């Protein structure tokens, strides 16, 4: 990083010394100067460029540098934009400076003009082209990088299960497992109320990775013991609304299994914690975490009383009993006509 920073300063100083005069304007009015030009083919529309850039005030104060960020920028060359207008004048390994008057930048936003950009000043952008690719080449390269990243992540995911099993065996933990994969053991039982989603819970905790690194705790003594005590931080139970996604899923699920006053150990797989993202310097992607927690207090949420349904009065209707077998009436037999004498 130091090498990049020094390179950025050297690059910026050389350009600054050469870029005080001989500026030109593109057909769209962009002010620029080519500091180093190569004989290569000029950049074309739809090509993808990789470039480093340093932004400065015209008093030489550095505002931003891709060198200090640690990686160059990439851009697909489009038809619009001040820089795009200049990029098409450059070739691979060329360098240039673009000058943008601050009066143009803050034309309709004078109230947002910072003190280091007084009227009449300019933003100076020093550009170095590092690579020029076709869109297909850039996409193929990007896909290759993504594929490597996915493979690395998949390997970490596969290793997580083995590490978790080994940790549980080595520490002789006897745990229950929920359908989601959360593993837990209640280490101090209680018969008080259990929290419901929407309740506010107060929890003391000690969190660590499976290699034993304590990354956070609400207990001052434990923080001091682990060397992570923060001056001015109040060490007290953390409070949050259960089930409101204010904490990792493993906590939202696990605390509903506990009674107020109970303690437990949670072994939380990464899919119920920080997954492939990780968190900070201590929690790597696909990290199973251990939390020793105490549900100190449950503050029930105000819930509307459930009204019992009022029983409807039924009025008995008079009914006529009928047989399930239909009665049939035989029609009266017609009298035979009298015989004529």
List the helices and strands and how they pair.
Blueprint: H1 2-18, E1 24-25, E2 31-36, E3 48-57, E4 62-65, H2 66-69, E5 73-76, H3 82-87, E6 95-101, H4 102-105, E7 122-133, H5 135-170, E8 176-177, E9 183-188, E10 200-209, E11 214-217, H6 220-226, E12 238-241, H7 249-254, E13 263-268, E14 289-299
Keywords:
341 residues; alpha+beta; Chitinase A, domain 3; 2 domains; 7-stranded antiparallel β-sheet; 7 helices; disordered N terminus
Q: How would you portray this structure in words?
A:
- It is a single chain.
- This protein is of the alpha+beta class and 341 residues long.
- Helix content is 23%, strand content 26%.
- It has helices at residues 2-18, 66-69, 82-87, 102-105, 135-170, 220-226, 249-254; strands at 24-25, 31-36, 48-57, 62-65, 73-76, 95-101, 122-133, 176-177, 183-188, 200-209, 214-217, 238-241, 263-268, 289-299.
- Strand 10 (200-209) and strand 11 form a beta hairpin.
- The strands form 2 sheets. Strands 1, 2, 3, 4, 5, 6 and 7 form a 7-stranded antiparallel β-sheet that branches. Strands 8, 9, 10, 11, 12, 13 and 14 form a 7-stranded antiparallel β-sheet that branches.
- It has 2 domains: 2-138, Chitinase A, domain 3; 170-299, Chitinase A, domain 3 (Roll).
